[in-house]
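Lesson 9: reading folded outputs for more than one chain in a single document. The general rule is that every protein is listed as its sequence immediately followed by its structure tokens, and records are never interleaved. Here is the first one.
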Amino acid sequence: MNDDARPAPEPQALPPHSGAADEANRQDPSRRSVLWTTAGVAGAGLGLGALGAGTASAAGAVTPEAVAAAPARQGRTMAGVPFERRSVIRVGIIGLGNRGNSMIDLFLAVPGVRVVAVCDPVREKAEKAAAKVTSAGQPAPAIYAKDEHDYENLCRRGDIDFVYVVTPWELHFPMAKAAMLNGKHVGVECPIAMSLGELWQLVDLSERTRRHCMQLENCCYGKNETRVLRMAHAGLFGDLLHGAGAYNHDLRELMFDPDYYEGPWRRLWHTRLRGDLYPNHGFGPVANYMDLNRGDRAVSITSIGTPALGLAEYRKEHMPPGHPSWKESYIGADRTISLVQTAKGRVIRLEHDVSTPHPYSRINSLGGTRGVFEDYPSRIYLEPTNTNHRWDDFTKYAEWDHWLWKEHANPPGGHGGMDYIMVFRLMQCMRLGLVPDFDVYDAALWTAPVPLSHLSVKAKGVPLPIPDFTRGEWKRARSGVDSEKPAE
């Protein structure tokens, strides 16, 4: 029988975690998000119940030790598990706003991919996406635009192999969950979820359903990032010591633009959390350089933040009286700085700032005993080539470019081509039956700073453990984005 025609397996119920996290995860997105503001911090005892740490004390508070503890494994590890080989990858896309509308073009550009279903509660957006599919010469996709829960019907289809979730953050978890429970592999935009309880549930679901759940972190496939990755793995930086990543991007105008984001959902997260809302773009590439979850792991995080002034000041200068934003109280630090320690003693600095004026930067830095790379602008200093205390030209190291960039020198799409490289590689892995470059454990790790930095900032920089989502598998070296070119 053609493997592309296999029906989806029956949904499997997942036992919930204990404590207040379960109640938070059972609520609809609007109610669940409100619970974020109720988590208290009392000395070293952190009130993590509403944030879903997975293990609650009798009083409802959770200690740092409980945060670090891994719940009992319910399935088998997904580390190193390949996709099923398929001749055609059938894709369903949920969310067709700015990001989804642009990304559908890239799925359509990859050979061997069919977009069979699209979903958005705004029918006009779904119909626009469907028109792109037919214009590309593919059969008209099914449209799911009945209401905000119609994505569940898309996930129930038996002719979808991969679900792509590109919606407001609070919807990422329930949509990824629905996809896996209906037998679909799923890729989710950043961040993959908003609480530790949700992260653990996604790990458990992936292991139980044997479906991959991936954070589609495009920056891991940036040209500079993949070049630095290969150089690091070749030992050019010596023993790795430190790295840095960030999302420093002035989004004030966009967050107050009623047309750019569908409603004020992104701005509203600044009324709920104080920490790093978007760590993935900076954390993912540095985690790859250091082989986190593949021989090393992140063990702790401490975060501090500035006062929350930027959004209120922008509102005062640009929003008219009576604008809905005047009812909002912003608590999110304008700049959050976090330090992550790894099991090998390395240090990673993460930054987040979308509320103040400054040029775009993801920092993207890596240092070791033989030298250092820094991005924005890109520059490098490596011994024995560099000995004069002056930065060198990073373009001299083009020989270290990843095979994906050598094969696709001028990729289509936005963000310098990294979006297409990411989609091409993921679809290639599915089509050829390869192990994905990153998995649910990477997704959980790269997103964990969202809830943990919030609590650490509230506790004035108290260090918090980062759970081992791999449950010990991190000790085993395995491949990642620095992959070998496969034989077609």
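And here is the second record, again sequence then tokens.
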Amino acid sequence: MTLTLTVPPRADADRLTGLPVAVIGAGPVGLAAAAHLLEQGLPVVVYEAGDQVGTSVRAWGHTRLFSPWRYVIDDAARRLLEPTGWTEPRRSSLPTGNDLVAQYLEPLAQTPELASVIRYGVRVEAVSRQGMDRTRSAGRADTPFLLRLHTADGVEDVTARAVVDTSGTYTSPNPLTAAGLAPAADLGDRIVHALPDVLGADRARFAGKRVLVVGAGHSAANTLIKLAALAKDVPDTTLLWAIRNAGTARLGADAADGLAARGQLGSNVHGLVESGHIEQLASFEIDDVRLDGDQVTVTGRRAGEAFAVTVDVIVNATGFRPDLDMLREIRLGLDDIVEAPRALAPLIDPNLHSCGSVPPHGVAELAHPEPNFFIAGMKSYGRAPTFLLLTGYEQVRSIAAELAGDHQAARDVQLVLPETGVCTTDVGGSSSCGVPATNEAAEGSSCCAAPAPAAPPASSSCCTN
């Protein structure tokens, strides 16, 4: 008797055929990723946790960007918008976050090409491989990704041929303590996220209160300057500013800056300290924050000595970090310090680079040990605060070319950034860098025109994600 064993041909390579590329997040970079992927002829699905595009941008929508419109519109997105009759905003004017949503992101999401591929109210809870955790290697590159989704109807698992995570970092702030740990107690609404709308929707949370702002960057300066404006109207408002180091390297005390608005920002906030409107608590390493009746007490050390301060409300402007929980089954190659892709990390070190001095980069720097998985946009920068939207747009152009098989185009990364790139500012209410919003800002190589000599207080934020 002869036994013939028939082995069916392997179909692993065909398991990816027809599957879409999954894009996580419908912010500026996520929508740009979808536009580039569609332009390459690749099917795509965008998963957005919010019920509309630009959820994180809307959260700081009152803030004006440093970058004018010429630096915040992606080329592939523009090509989708133009046939719809969309009118491009004046390229030299500076939008607020709300402007960015209303005049760019919403029209882009409503184009026929993107409207059919965006799923709202869908939170990606985990990313893995179908039938594989991170420990299995055989056939991994030919196995579909598996995304576990949380929707209003329950839990759903979907597959994809590739994943581009553009979910950003805005919802993952760094904790208040110097050790990077959350306070031991639940402080509820006594801690406020970075970039509150101090003079608008959030005014009542700060008026007449003793407020501590923690952080040494532009978001902290933004809040302090607007709080100082509030204190003029409500004199009982008391302002304290806690920084971990002896000084604020990213906030120069003069306007000698490649971006005049950034220099003006530093000048304004330091002027408020010198005039006594803000009490600066330098060299303050926070160990814990605890409830103290209707207030909170912040404890730690100043220059090595025990120190404590009691306030009504704290603004956490200590920066952001990537949420990596949903990627536990993905093989990531992250820098140990910045939590950015290892090849990218030295290029974005905030001790060496501003937004504009970061060199162009694409798939070669964004690659992980997991084939066809990419983190793009603000989240790709890990804990570094130097991200600029143009950088994210070039990232996703490169990724789309790589996934389409055009490896040469993917590595031909070209990007012209402003000479010194900082993310956003709002000098003077409706003004942009001290220039009235109705006027054209200078069309130079920097993001902003010079502020007017007597510009009102400035503000800033992290870039969008």
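What the second record shows: The first strand starts at residue 21 and ends at 24.
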